[in-house]
From TrEMBL:
Name of the protein described by the UniProt record: Peptidoglycan bridge formation glycyltransferase FemY
Family of the protein in this entry: Belongs to the FemABX family.
UniProt keyword annotations, A-Z: Acyltransferase, Cell shape, Cell wall biogenesis/degradation, Peptidoglycan synthesis, Transferase
Coiled coil: none
Gene3D superfamilies referenced in this protein's UniProt entry, alphabetically: 3.40.630.30
Species for this entry: Streptomyces levis
Length: 378
């Protein structure tokens, strides 16, 4: 199959995404506006008949330093993309034209995250592994199911010269998009079945919040400062660097302009005070719990549980096939500060999912090594 890759319009890109059952929220045209430090370009894959058979959002990040006209060099990044047939025989026919285009664009390296699942672990399997002192890493635990074709994709990438990126390595919280995530399958399940799949603690907390009178409402752009106040408190409590309010305001403007339900905000009220809040993203049949925030005050009324259940309820009503709680840690050691978050997500009764990770294709090896060194020192 002869394929050409070239820029496409936002409308062409969005139409291609809309025709699919799901796509990553990082592969919709509006995501480029969420990342103002990157230059965004929509790419299309056309077969010999002129039919659009693939699409991808490329983010271009210039090398640090003086920006001289005509000499700019970029890292070209396709987070959780591109949207192509990853299991087509002769994958190089799809990737080589992309690399050639990005080379002409000035890329010194290409990084992508194939949306290809490798294996899955049930909640019961993960729970047992956490309780097993001999289990150190999720990757070393026998999976509940495997996707045999994923290995063929990885082998093909290596033959073409792609290499697994350190940024897309073993941790679900490395730089870049997570390799390990936790998802709750919704397809073919009633809301009652999803509720029954929650563990006892989750069900108890949801009931406690309801009995205490916690009310969860949908917010809008005017409620982002209230969300951000809780988010900043969460960052201080959990020891991570928070994003500024302007980031979420820009994210809201970009995503909701593309589709009114692309991003939602939920806030849990109790006795006139907002105690917890979260954002939810939707593309097709895939829904993500994106950012969560809460205060330490009155945690006994379980506002975060109330928010989660409301989002899951609404996701089910929207026809979601999967509710995605995003990244999890690969480590199962009790000393890991992220283990508590894994336990929380396991309580949904879903499954841990490993993707193929992020892969790099160096076009200028000297600049690529210099960029890796720069990242390691940040």
């Amino acid at each position: 199959m002869s394929v050409r890759v070239q820029p496409i319009t936002r409308d062409e890109h969005l139409a291609f995404v809309a025709a699919r059952r799901s796509a990553s929220h990082t592969q919709v045209p509006s995501w480029g506006a969420v990342k103002p430090d990157w230059e965004a370009e929509s790419l299309g894959w056309f077969d010999r008949t002129g039919q659009l058979v693939g699409a991808g959002l490329v983010l271009l990040r210039p090398l640090p330093g003086p920006r001289l006209p005509g000499l700019l060099r970029y890292l070209a990044y396709l987070p959780e993309g591109p949207l192509i047939d990853w299991h087509e025989p002769g994958l190089e026919r799809l990737l080589e034209p992309m690399v050639a285009h990005l080379r002409r664009r000035g890329a010194f390296a290409v990084r992508m995250g194939p949306p290809v699942v490798v294996r899955r672990w049930s909640a019961e399997t993960v729970k047992a592994a956490i309780a097993d002192p001999a289990a150190r890493r999720l990757r070393d635990v026998r999976a509940t199911s495997y996707e045999p074709r994923a290995g063929q994709v990885a082998d093909g990438l290596r033959r073409m010269g792609w290499r697994l990126s350190e940024a897309g390595g073993d941790s679900g919280f490395a730089a870049g998009q997570p390799r390990y995530v936790f998802q709750v399958p919704f397809a073919g399940r009633s809301l009652e079945e999803i509720h029954d799949g929650l563990n006892q603690q989750w069900r108890r907390n949801i009931k406690k919040a309801d009995k205490a009178g916690v009310k969860v409402v949908r917010g809008d752009a005017e409620d982002l400062p209230a969300f951000h106040e809780l988010y900043t408190e969460t960052a201080e409590r959990d020891g991570f660097l928070p994003r500024p309010l302007s980031y979420f305001q820009g994210m809201w403007s970009a995503l909701t302009a593309e589709h009114p339900d692309r991003m939602r905000l939920y806030l849990a009220h109790h006795d006139g005070e907002v105690l917890a809040a979260a954002t939810m993203l939707t593309v097709g049949e895939h829904v993500w719990y994106s950012y969560g925030a809460s205060t330490s005050r009155r945690r006994e009324v379980q506002p975060s549980s109330a928010v989660q259940w409301r989002m899951m309820t609404d996701a089910h009503e929207l026809g979601a096939a999967v509710y995605d709680l995003r990244g999890i840690t690969d480590t199962l050691e009790e000393s890991s500060p992220l283990l508590g978050l894994l336990r929380f997500k396991v309580g949904t009764g879903g499954e841990a999912v490993e993707y193929l990770g992020e892969w790099d294709y160096p076009l200028n090896r000297m600049l690529y090594k210099a960029f890796q060194l720069y990242l390691s020192r940040r």
